[in-house]
Amino acid sequence: MDKKSGQERVWKNAGMWSDRALDLLAIYAFKSKGEFTMNEFREYAIGRGLEEPYHPNCWGALPAVAAKQLIIKPSGNMFPSERREAHHRLIRGWVRA
Question: What pLDDT does 2 receive?
Answer without folding.
Answer: 86
